[in-house]
Design brief:
The protein is an all-alpha fold. The chain has one domain (2-196). Helices cover 74% and strands 0% of the residues. It has 8 helices and no strands. The longest helix is centred in the N-terminal third of the chain and has 28 residues, at 2-29.
Length: 197
């Protein structure tokens, strides 16, 4: 009972962090915020966290789709954190200090990704064992990749990440980046499932 209370407290903090971070991003960027994987994955986390809390308020066990969303958002936010730390830190003046600790990025790049994984591991209700779930885990990343590449190909977007500048790099580089990021999200989600179990 005590552990469940701790889980709920962390989940509420995560929800509040998502609302604050996304509100700042929306104020600063408007509709352009949806071009960023960071914001989209945090929106997914906000939805999964809200649905999870709603289930507990109704005194119901979260259903399989809510659990899947929680894993998807955890994997997506972990990918966001890793991309920031390993790739984007060299592309922004101020590096990690700016990318992890300033404005909306404190919430969306740092606090919420960490809280999302913590709340996943603390919650013993969130178990996934079926094969269908395993194949769905990288779906958000795959959908984002398809939309982002198409929008860049049609000159509707420019980036917003360096590895999406498809006209400024060889085709093989775009293919490899897509495989690494989508495959990485999938492998990391399998890791989360295994570690949770």
């Amino acid at each position: 009972m005590k552990q469940k209370r701790i889980v709920l407290i962390f989940e509420v903090i995560l929800l509040i962090g998502e609302v604050i971070g996304l509100s700042i991003a929306a104020y600063n960027s408007g509709w352009i915020m949806f071009e960023y994987y960071t914001n989209d994955s945090n929106i997914l986390s906000l939805v999964s966290s809200g649905l999870l809390l709603w289930s507990y308020k109704k005194k119901k066990q979260p259903d399989i789709n809510i659990i899947r969303l929680k894993y998807m958002s955890s994997a997506a936010l972990s990918l966001t954190f890793l991309v920031v730390v390993l790739i984007l830190r060299t592309t922004v003046p101020g590096g990690l200090r700016v990318l992890l600790f300033s404005g909306s990025m404190f919430y969306l790049h740092f606090l919420c990704p960490i809280l999302c994984v913590i709340t996943l591991f603390l919650n013993s209700d969130l178990m996934l064992n079926d094969q269908t779930s395993r194949w769905l885990m990288s779906l958000p990343t795959l959908l984002y990749g398809i939309v982002a590449i198409l929008c860049n190909a049609l000159y509707l977007w420019y980036g917003p990440y360096p590895f999406l500048h498809i006209y400024e790099q060889p085709l093989i580089a775009s293919i490899l980046w897509t495989a690494v990021l989508v495959g990485g999200a999938w492998l990391y989600s399998l890791f989360l499932i295994r570690m949770h179990r």
